[in-house]
Amino acid sequence: MKLQKRIVLVFLSLIVSILLSVAVPCVRASEAPRPTPSMDDGVRKGPLLRETTRSLGKVPEGAWTWPAEYGRDYVVSPNAAHIAYVTTLETDREAVVLDGNRQGVHEWVVALNFSPDSNRLAYVAGDGQEAVAAVDGQAAKFEGILELHFRFPVEAVLFSPDSRRWAHSAWRNGKPLVVIDGEESPPYEDIDFSTMTFSPDSDHFVYAASRDEKWFLVVDGEERHEVDYRIDDVVYSPDSAHLAYVGLSEENSFVVKDGQKGEVFGSVWPPVFSPNSSHMAYSALFMREAEAAEDQRTSFIVVDGQKSEAHQGSVIFPPAFSPDSNRLAYVQRHIGSDKIDYSLTLDGEESPRFYWLNPRSVTFSPHSAHYAYIAGRAEQDALAVMMIADGEACPSYDAVTIPVFSPDSSHLAYAAMKRQKWFVVVDGREEGPYEEVWNPYFYQDYESRVGFLRSDESPQKRVARAGAGNWRWSPVFSPDSKHLAYLAKKNGTWRVVVDGNAGQIGLSRVLSSPFFYSSNRLRLIGYQESSHEFVLLDVEINIPAEEAEGEVAAP
């Protein structure tokens, strides 16, 4: 009997392995046609939807606000249930408003930030010569509070992963300090506020500080690892058991893990831990990038302290582990005397070379069996951009967004543009066309990091900028992988689309991506310019047909 059970278990495991190994197809739309949604005639092509809206507050009369412009003016909570924004009053003072309720008025306000659980709001403001850090409506005043401008979006107040704790930088008597859960640290000669980090379990907090030309880590208030070089890129392992950072001297860089210094290189990228915390990897250059001719750079990938063979004339971007921690991928930029091209190395095997490849786009499926990334080939005077799924090149477009796998790893979706029209591609099948399928933001100081396409740029420049960006409005799968939702714009109106069915309630702007809070319920936040009102749109999927009667609302 035990032998029979063992045979059954082995057989079931084999079946699961085979199913997970089946490649996600790049089926052309012409080979497997699928009805596309109509946003004009109100005819439902997919599941029945019930849409309801709730006001999250109108912009006060005489006030001014401009959502979705510079990142400082509003923020949506991670669960898409709340919105906080800054509005300028007739007195030229600025007010913080949460879901329509005023929280505070100051001379200026920046860096709105929700906690990960969406229940706490923090911001930084100024009154006179003082800076104010406000958390849960409780404000503390300091000489100054340094914004972490390199972060995206700006987070002057940092919450712990479990949302219990918070920290921010501050200045008193001309010296920097850190405020942790409302308690001030001792002042130091210098603090690198960019290193402020909570551990994943939220129990520990670390940052780098300096005194008498020595740098050290301050871990839970205790000074450790005093060194004579600068400390940068502090990172905890996912299980919070390991702590690593990059050491920077005048001539070299290296990684230090749990106090043990690794091999010295000219420069290194920040270390990356595997999801199970058993492995750590990073890429490195033999010479400082600025000091070496491009085709003379020598790169390495370092995994668990073991250096790879030298990659002459290339730069290796930061590696990525698969969710099961068993696969490692990294992108190389190969620099020759007459051309530059890119490749992906996965499980030690290098892909064909591409004219361009987006290092940020490399994505594994949740089960780790599949992978996808964005690459491009030069065609005449344009760049043909395509998704590469499990090594197979999908049809090319002018631009594509970061790939998204369903939670069960069986579906792949992304947005794509061709000849100024946008589509959503699901398992190789197109839905659309639309004017847009997301609402891009433009941050003037972060052009290289935002997926924004300026209307005055040529398609070639647009593709180049799009490839460098972080796409915030990719399609979203439901937790059970049965539904796909995204935002689409047609005839100047934004609507939610679920499984090819366009909703009936139109929005002037969309301020968040769809958020599934159950397998058949989602919500998002938008803005109606006609009423100067923020609204929460709630969508229920697959309602009974008789309940759908009368549910259609005018745009």
Question: How does this structure look, described?
Answer:
The protein is mainly β and 555 residues long. Strands 22, 23, 24, 25, 26 and 27 form a six-stranded antiparallel sheet that branches. Residues 5-21, 27-44, 67-72, 147-154, 439-472 and 548-555 have low confidence and may be disordered.
Name some characteristics of this structure.
3 helices, 6-stranded antiparallel beta sheet, disordered C terminus, globular, mainly beta, 5-stranded antiparallel beta sheet, about 45% strand
Write the layout of secondary structure elements.
Elements: H1 2-21, E1 49-58, E2 74-76, E3 83-88, E4 94-98, E5 101-106, E6 108-114, E7 121-127, E8 130-135, E9 138-142, E10 157-159, E11 166-172, E12 175-180, E13 183-184, E14 190-198, E15 205-211, E16 214-219, E17 222-227, E18 230-236, E19 243-248, E20 253-257, E21 260-261, E22 267-268, E23 272-273, E24 280-285, E25 298-303, E26 306-307, E27 311-312, E28 314-316, E29 320-321, E30 328-335, E31 340-346, E32 349-350, E33 356-357, E34 363-364, E35 371-379, E36 382-389, E37 392-397, E38 399-400, E39 404-405, E40 412-418, E41 421-426, E42 429-434, H2 459-468, E43 476-477, E44 484-490, E45 493-498, E46 501-502, E47 509-510, E48 515-518, E49 521-528, E50 533-541, H3 545-548
Task: Offer a concise description of the structure.
By secondary structure, this protein is mainly beta. 6% of the residues lie in helices and 46% in strands. The protein is built from three helices and 50 strands.
